[in-house]
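REQUEST FORM: STRUCTURE PREDICTION
Request ID: SP-0412
Submitted by: Lab K.M.
Chain count: 1
Length (residues): 258
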Amino acid sequence: MATQPRRYGDGLGQGANSVLGKTRLILEAFALDDVHLSLTELSRRTGISKASVHRLAQELLDWGMLERSGQEYRLGMRAFELGSRVPRFRVLRDAARPFMESLHFTTKEVVLLYVPDGLDLLCLEKIASGPEAAKPSRIARRVPLYCTSGGRAILAYSPASFVEEVLTSELVRLTPSTIVAPGLLVEQLKRVRVNHYATETEEVVQGYCSVSVPIFSNSEFLVGALSIVVPTFRADVPKLARALLATSGRLSRSTLLN
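STATUS: Completed
RESULT:
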């Protein structure tokens, strides 16, 4: 499905008219599945004239934030390099990866590390092998908090004001199974606090379910969620939950998180 053009400057206010605002629109025009975008498509998605996009793209090429691929553009290695320097995410990813690898070895399932970002979850790391590596979840993918097990694991231990903000936002069905009734979601969060893990079944991708647990530092600061995604037909939720809880406990006690 084609990416819809955004209204020019949507969400940027008066900042949309600045060079920085226009640069942000260009960089954010690239969706997760995009490899290359033409000048025409960048102009369509950002609402910026082709002449302005071309001029700014030249500067981004010089900076390394964009690369040229024939007559099209793609995100450059400089963007990856800068993103990898974010200390909060880098420390958590480095701390979690050995535990995720052990969990994957034990369960033979896809293991994901999520962090909250606004009203979304951002996939920070993924451990998978064989055909499972190509399954829906991927690093840098964004998914809503309300319909994901990782999001519910985080919301269950978040301030009431933030939970209310999420539940009063637009709750969109990603599949026919997605729960969008705020009352039902509140009950889900209560269940998470009792069981200490969250679940969802085919609410994000049909044919798959997930189990998640929150990750805390030793100071009891909520830092993210650890998830396992598995085809629905072979999901053993209690077994996966036990493995996740044991792993999150060891991770929370890790000196790298404290």
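NOTES: The chain has a mean pLDDT of 87.
Reviewed by: T.R.
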